[in-house]
Amino acid sequence: MAGEGDMQAHEQTYNSVINLLKYGAVICFLIAFFVIWLIAG
């Protein structure tokens, strides 16, 4: 199994990736909404 140091590094990387995906999803939603608004207008 992984040592404690490896697990701590893994958790930090995991949290960084999850935060990136959350913010990326929000940004993609906003861009898509803006494009739809431009097309509809």
TrEMBL record:
The chain crosses the membrane at residues 20-40. InterPro entries: Cyt-C_aa3_sf, Cyt_c_oxidase_su4_bac-aa3. The keyword Transmembrane applies. Keywords: Membrane, Transmembrane, Transmembrane helix. The keyword Nucleus does not apply. Residues 2-38 form the Cytochrome c oxidase subunit IV bacterial aa3 type domain. Pfam families: COX4_pro_2. This is Aa3-type cytochrome c oxidase subunit IV. It comes from Stakelama marina.
